[in-house]
């Protein structure tokens, strides 16, 4: 009888472990490939855009960085992170300065059309 209880306990632990593994996110190679391709596209777009960033847009970008984080790449408020205080999820696990710059440029341009648009919104709302 004692060995049956041990076997049932072991079986319960194995079943629980299998259930946990089943519920964990699966590694999806094609999704990872698409994500890397999107990052490469954003990097290429950023290089073109950075070379063409006007003095006014560069100043607007600096304005937001100073007000959001004091210019610190490691600033955090719990839900946002980095120099431009974007959602932690938007970095996809890459918190490097380069990725923060790329992600912020993409965000400002896709949401506001430019850093000047983002600054104007920030001035009227106190956030962007």
Tell me about this structure.
- With 128 residues, the protein is mainly alpha-helical.
- The protein is 68% helix and 3% strand.
- It is built from five helices and two strands, in the order H-H-H-E-E-H-H.
- A two-stranded antiparallel sheet has the order 1-2.
- Strand 1 (80-81) and strand 2 (86-87) form a beta hairpin.
- Helix 4 (97-112) packs across helix 5 (115-125).
- The radius of gyration is 23 Å and the shape is globular.
- The protein starts with a helix and ends with a helix.
- The relative contact order is 0.10.
- The mean pLDDT is 80.
What's this, in brief?
This protein is mainly α and 128 residues long. Helices cover 68% and strands 3% of the residues.
> What is the straight-line distance between the termini?
66 Å
User: β content, as a range?
Assistant: under 5%
Spatial order of the strands in the main sheet?
A: 1-2
- The structural class is mainly alpha
Unreliable stretches (pLDDT < 50, length at least 5) are none
Give the rounded overall mean pLDDT.
Answer: 80
């Amino acid at each position: 009888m004692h060995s049956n209880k041990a076997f049932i306990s072991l079986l319960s632990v194995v079943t629980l472990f299998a259930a946990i593994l089943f519920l964990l996110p699966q590694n999806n190679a094609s999704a990872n490939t698409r994500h890397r391709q999107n990052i490469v596209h954003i990097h290429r777009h950023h290089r073109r855009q950075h070379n063409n960033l006007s003095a006014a847009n560069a100043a607007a970008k600096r304005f937001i960085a100073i007000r959001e984080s004091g210019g610190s790449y490691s600033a955090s408020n719990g839900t946002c992170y980095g120099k431009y205080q974007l959602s932690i999820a938007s970095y996809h696990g890459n918190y490097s300065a380069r990725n923060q710059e790329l992600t912020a440029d993409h965000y400002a341009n896709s949401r506001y059309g430019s850093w000047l648009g983002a600054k104007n919104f920030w001035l009227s709302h106190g956030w962007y």
